[in-house]
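Example for reference:
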Amino acid sequence: MLRPRVAVPSEYPPEAGYGQRKMNARTSHDATPFLPDTAEGRSDLGELRRAAAGCQGCGLYENATQTVFGEGSPGGRVMFVGEQPGDQEDRKGLPFVGPAGRILDRALAEAGIERGDVYVTNAVKHFKFKRQEGGGKRRIHEPPSAAEVRACRPWLDAEMRLLDPDVVVALGATAGKALLGPSFRVTKERGRLLPLPDWEAQVVATIHPSAVLRAEDREGMYAGFLDDLKVAASALG
């Protein structure tokens, strides 16, 4: 079994009910008081998703359309962790349904990773953006801060605890730092099977599929991304 990386703080003891813990939400600096009681295995992904819909653990909920929780097989052996939902994901309420998601789907098929073995989520569950200059309607992605990633970490830990994946794939720098620490660098550590600190799982870091879309040499960037996913696939046996 996985060991939780972040324990429930003592001010929110497991025996305290969700409503009681939520009363302390205004003084919280993360998502902890919004989580249902997962400490003793009484929750499932559906309950987590419903609870996350009301999360106000950081300020990102104020401008986002909705919480975008993880999606996929509850028994999935591979968990993909991205940075945050994008514009289309924010509107539809599902992760990786935009152009980057199509790149990921293509690479999964070519790497031989069955979609039924996959669960996809993000380190941050709300879309962070700025408005296009000049009064345009376009919403432009902004990277989440380290504090926002930390605030959302209890959701990621809860997902991992319930899923118990064999392999976790970190998609991009933000996800890599969330899982492996602030010194993580994609360019140095991508494409290798590494132990995931405090969890009985392995992690493979790679680029975010959106990097393929931005690259001048898309085919070359995609080929490297695919090679990294094949490393993850090899760990599944």
User: Anything to note?
Assistant: Residues 146-163 form the longest helix (18 residues).
